[in-house]
Amino acid sequence: MMRDITKLRASCSLAFDVEVPTPMVLMLRPRSSAGQWVVREEYSFSPDVIVDEVADAYGNLCQRLVAPVGQFSVFTEVCVDVQASKPAPVQAGFIEVPDLPADTLIHLLPSRYCEVDRFGDMAAQIVGDATPGYAQVEAISNWVRENIRNRPLSSTYPVSAIEVNQRGEGVCRDLAQLAITLCRALCIPARLVVGYLHKLEPMDIHAWFEAYVGDEWLTFDPAVDPDDAPRIAIARGRDATDVAIYNQYGPLLLPTDMQVSVALA
Questions:
Q1: What is the CATH number of domain 5-84+245-264?
Q2: Residues whose CB is less than 8 angstroms from the CB of residue 184 and which lie 6 or more positions away in sequence, other chains included
Q3: Regarding predicted confidence, which is higher, 91 or 133?
Q4: Which residue in 1, 136, 142, 151 has the most C-beta neighbors within 10 A?
């Protein structure tokens, strides 16, 4: 069955004041994949630099460069055809661990921001008697949305699932990581996604998660309601360690300005 197509135009600009030549890895190029087709893109630097692009272990496109001293800016814009979300597959069942694809197993393990071994009892209490699989993930996503306050732009660094659960609040990335941790505690593979979300307020790079149930990766978003708005995935990984839109090596380098926009094309 054919699904409707939404055409999105998204952009991100970053500006830095660089004091020493700084090696960086950016992650700002979405790939064409299931549900999204990159129609057109622009990617530029000021001043121009030599860029080496590689794919990481999860297939994300990474741009390696050395930022020169002085004002340095990055601009990227992409036009993407996004397929409308499928009806929620509420019957998508739990996949027993021996039957999971090998490449999903890493998404069951504890990672830097997801202390899976500490959340087994809590996860079981949250899902109650929900049917194993999709219904459990939906119960977890709903619980996080209802019990952990989403505070956009309130944090510049990731916190762990334990921390955000104790605080009772966090940014979208933190909420997604708590949900991921709870899913993994039930032996449901889950991974973090960063990208663009249409009509997000306030506008920023957004984070959500995918869970592997019913033999496919399905999208869930505990930070927004409803969670079926058109979106563009830029990168996927275990947690925030794998999907930062930029990493610098050396002295701390924070953007002096960052602008994100998402609109219908």
A1: 2.60.40.2250
A2: 107, 108, 109, 110, 114, 116, 190
A3: 133
A4: 136
For residues 50-58, average pLDDT: 97
User: Domain residues of the chain, as ranges?
Assistant: 5-84+245-264, 97-237
Average pLDDT of the chain? Answer: 95
Q: Where are the alpha helices (DSSP H) in 196-249?
A: none
Query: Distance (Å, rounded) from C-alpha 110 to C-alpha 2?
Result: 38
With residue 123 as reference, give the H or E element that holds it.
helix 120-127
Tens of pLDDT along 135-168?
A: 999 999 999 999 999 999 887 788 999 999 999 9
Cβ-contact 258, 14 below 8 angstroms: yes
Q: At what angle are helices 120-127 and 172-185 packed, to 10 degrees?
A: 90
Query: Looking at the DSSP assignment, which residues form a beta bridge with residue 14?
Result: 74, 258
Give the model's confidence band at 2: pLDDT under 50 very low, under 70 low, under 90 confident, else very high.
low
